[in-house]
Amino acid sequence: MELRGAFTALSTPFKDGEVDESTYRDFIEWQIEQGIDGLVPCGTTGEAATMSHEEQGRVIKICVEQTKGRVPVIAGAGSNSTKEAIELTKMAKDAGADATLQITPYYNKPTPGGLVAHFKAIAQAAPLPMVIYNVPGRTGLNCLPSTLKMIKDAVPEAIAVKEATGNLCQGAEVVELCGRDFMLLSGDDFTALPLLAVGGVGVISVISNIMPKAMSSMCHAFFAKDHEKALELSLKMAPVNRAMFMETNPIPVKSSLAMMGIFKDAQFRLPIVPLQDENKPKLEAVLKTAGLL
């Protein structure tokens, strides 16, 4: 399975505390119309951490149904409990997802051997291509390139990594140790273009929720060796990227979707709360300057 280009870590719209299926389907359709290369339901940006397993399975199924095979669907199915990750992966597989996104177990802080055993158990119970998600800022654990090599060698289903350390040296070392057949995806919009330059193949993106065409076009310009255009698009997105992290993700991006009229409003589940009042005019100003409002 080849993953290449921009994959949106989809925000999940809520209505009266429940998943807003109609808005979600329209959002997926808009993403595909805008030229996105793939979709990632139930990741951090999609607020999977506050969804029940039943809701998570339903959101993945909606995404697969609406996508109709036009782009790959990489379903968030990870957990710090191997047993739960297996259950979620089985649900993603039953829903028809093309691959799963598997976070390194948070809080537990397993050893390299524990990480290998975790991903191996998931793959054996529910064989499906998996993207390892390395985000030490949220998990308290950095999955080093040497550990990724161990995982790749032991788990054939592990085909890629979503690298969200912001460390370009680490990203480059992943390609060096794991080879070009193990796909490097940026998990941080700020490092999307630099990681392409050291052997990456794309990005799982927050900003592509609101700028899917720009992020996809940047990746494709790079692949076409039009580095000037790729840099131009990267610089265009830079101020919006910063705004997407003025507060904890997914608060700014979901607020932006509401401001743009793509979502009816910006509803969150505790412990995530709405954007602070003092940040609303700042976010609006950035979106207006970028031509999004």
TrEMBL record:
The active site is at residues 133, 162. CDD domains: DHDPS (cd00950). Pfam families: DHDPS (PF00701). Pyruvate binds at residues 45, 204. It comes from the Bacteria. The record marks 44, 107 as: Part of a proton relay during catalysis. It is an enzyme of class 4 (lyase). InterPro entries: Aldolase_TIM, DapA, DapA-like, Schiff_base-form_aldolases_CS. The record marks 49, 80, 84, 106 as: L-lysine inhibitor binding. It is found in: Cytoplasm. Its EC number is 4.3.3.7. Keywords: Amino-acid biosynthesis, Cytoplasm, Diaminopimelate biosynthesis, Lyase, Lysine biosynthesis, Membrane, Schiff base, Transmembrane, Transmembrane helix. The chain crosses the membrane at residues 190-210. GO terms for biological process: diaminopimelate biosynthetic process; lysine biosynthetic process via diaminopimelate. GO terms for molecular function: 4-hydroxy-tetrahydrodipicolinate synthase activity. Gene3D superfamilies: Aldolase class I. Pathway: Amino-acid biosynthesis; L-lysine biosynthesis via DAP pathway; (S)-tetrahydrodipicolinate from L-aspartate: step 3/4. GO terms for cellular component: cytosol. SUPFAM superfamilies: Aldolase. It catalyses: L-aspartate 4-semialdehyde + pyruvate = (2S,4S)-4-hydroxy-2,3,4,5-tetrahydrodipicolinate + H2O + H(+). Its main location: cytoplasm. Catalyzes the condensation of (S)-aspartate-beta-semialdehyde [(S)-ASA] and pyruvate to 4-hydroxy-tetrahydrodipicolinate (HTPA). Belongs to the DapA family. Homotetramer; dimer of dimers. This is 4-hydroxy-tetrahydrodipicolinate synthase. It comes from Pseudodesulfovibrio hydrargyri.
